[in-house]
What we know:
The chain is α/β, with parallel strands linked by helices and 408 residues long. It has helices at residues 15-26, 69-74, 133-142, 156-167, 183-186, 188-200, 246-250, 295-309, 373-385, 391-395, 401-406, and strands at residues 7-11, 32-36, 78-80, 85-89, 94-97, 102-104, 107-110, 114-116, 127-129, 148-152, 171-176, 204-207, 211-217, 220-225, 228-232, 234-237, 241-243, 259-261, 272-274, 279-283, 288-291, 321-326, 329-335, 342-347, 354-360, 363-370. It has three domains: 7-114 and 241-309, FAD/NAD(P)-binding domain; 118-237, FAD/NAD(P)-binding domain (3-Layer(bba) Sandwich), CATH 3.50.50.60; 328-406, FAD/NAD-linked reductase, C-terminal dimerisation domain (Enolase-like, domain 1), CATH 3.30.390. It contains eleven helices and 26 strands. Strand 1 (7-11), helix 1 (15-26) and strand 2 form a beta-alpha-beta unit. The protein starts with 6 loop residues before the first strand and ends with a helix.
Amino acid sequence: MSESIRSIVLVGGGQASAVAARTLRRKGYDGRLTVVGQEPDRPYQRPPLSKEYLGGQDPDECGLYLLPESWTEEHDVEVRTGVTALKVSAPDGGVLLDDGTTLDADRVLLATGGRPRRLPDADGDRIRYLRSKADCDALRADLAPGVRLTVIGAGFIGAEVASTARDLGAEVTVLEMAEAPLVRALGPRLGAACARLHAGADVDLRCGVAVDSVTQRGEEVEVATSGGPVVSDLVVVGIGMVPNDEIARDSGLECDNGVLVDEYCRTSHEHVFAAGDVANHFHPLYGERMRVEHFDNASQQGSVAAQNMLGANKPFADPHWFWSDQYGANLQQVGHAGPDDELVVRGDLEGDSWSAWHLRDGAIRAAFALNRAEDIAVARELIAFGASLPAEVLADDTTDLEEALEDM
């Protein structure tokens, strides 16, 4: 299978590339394998950047690094850091790097991730974004008891930064343009439930607030908003991400909100694949395209892409699962919800443990839970099966969902 493939290049130093490298060696590929990372650090995972690592844990304690030198030496994997891949010349089988060298490549994986969406005309060393380890190192050096922090955006990254900052004793204000946190992903009812987490941690959450400008003046930063000015010592901006698809565009690959791939993670060129945050993939379970910016998606796609580079014909059909830890609570979601789905709640949304289920024409499309990992585990299987459960069964908090799953 892999005898005709002499060289594989994995472009990107994150989760998808690392999983792909491990999968390729586990599946028996013994040819040349090179990981190319733009950052100076070896491949690492990003979830700890807003949680454990930001909170002060060392890299080994929180499992930051993905491909230790001992593993890459043992498995003959070359890791090149601090270089940028500029172009894939697929017909010639090469990847051009910004140091002027070209890597031979019979197969290429683009796992270049994304970069933070930036606010215009907002400059200063106290205005921060969180995407890289370097970003995190700079931020955690400044977080301390009594520091005034303003977070712009109450999405998952913004909420996790706010939570970690509160644990470190900072005074935190969160500004959100929507009526509640995570409205676009969860809807207003679940967003309001998430807002209560902020309130319970004494975070000043201000929703329905538009940011007009962010200006640093000396040691302070003023955020001008529709509700008046907010002055703090630091500002973290978390307003979304832009896919790093420049290499794909410059290589003539089809792109639209990321690199377009099919259900096999294959781009418009049969020998070039893409996975993770940068991949706009067709999902056979949902029958539509989507670009997902979560850790588990990068892991699953990295594995599928690696297997398909070696000749497998394995579709990526995972229901999508992600988690977030905020203020001592665990939040999880699985599936793909829509604004018109029927919402069925198990438990009390004002309590500290509940799950909410999204139904479309009776079928389970997604589930979101607070401190109910067991409900999400069942939901993942139900969604993968395309299963249905009556709304009254789901709403009955005494129903054993695992038994309901076994009876199907």
